Amino acid sequence: MDTDAATGLTFRDATDADVDALVALIESAYRGDSSRTGWTTEADILEGQRTDPEGVLAVIKSPDSRLLTVERDGAVVACCQLEHRGDHAYFGMFAVSPALQGGGLGKVIIAEAERHAHETWGVAEMHMTVISAREDLIAWYERRGYRRTGKMTPFPYGDERFGIPQRDDLQFELLVKPLAQQAE
């Protein structure tokens, strides 16, 4: 674990009281000019919202999900969704404050999410979907042990809850990582 990046972090499950802070965090990491501070921005390919209070609350309330909230000095600095899906867990809604991106925090959080999914649910794999045009982000996940599957699902064009696409070739690619070695 990157001890400098992990210093002072607290991991906990999100509550209803966290919804507004989490929506603001997720939006700041992916959309609008604030997202350009970090490297995970989708501002050039998607406008509009990334999520909304209803979407975040649905993850918090789902019995098969948890929204892992990461704090440092009492402030929410990152989050990710973990959802138990039988033999695997789904990893999504991953956001790190743009001001803190590039310092190793994302590596610490994804490692903790993988550890938690494997230990809590006994799952052998972590799955995620990433917009296939996001080559830099996919490369980052590949360095963490995820592999591209080539399995694509369409972007929900016309549903502005997921943003307003700025190009017509968006789709999601499934990335998969085995977690069994985590138990060793």
Report a brief summary of the structure.
This protein has 184 residues and is α+β, with helices and mostly antiparallel strands. The chain has helices spanning 3-6, 19-30, 53-61, 105-121, 135-143, and strands at residues 9-13, 46-47, 65-72, 75-85, 88-96, 125-131, 147-154, 164-165, 171-178.
How would you portray this structure in words?
The chain has 184 residues and is α+β, with helices and mostly antiparallel strands. Strand 5 (88-96), helix 4 and strand 6 (125-131) form a beta-alpha-beta unit. 28% of the residues lie in helices and 33% in strands. It is built from five helices and nine strands, in the order H-E-H-E-H-E-E-E-H-E-H-E-E-E.
Poorly predicted ranges? none
Percentage of residues in helical conformation: 25-40%
User: What is the radius of gyration computed over CA atoms, rounded to a whole number of angstroms?
Assistant: 16 Å
List the secondary-structure elements in sequence, H or E: HEHEHEEEHEHEEE
Gross morphology: globular
Strand content: 25-35%
pLDDT averaged residue by residue:
90
Give the end-to-end Cα distance, rounded to a whole number of Å.
16 Å
The beta-strand count equals 9
Count of helical stretches: 5
Strand order of the largest sheet: 1-3-4-5-6-9-7
Broad structural category? alpha+beta
- Major β-sheet profile: 7 strands, mixed
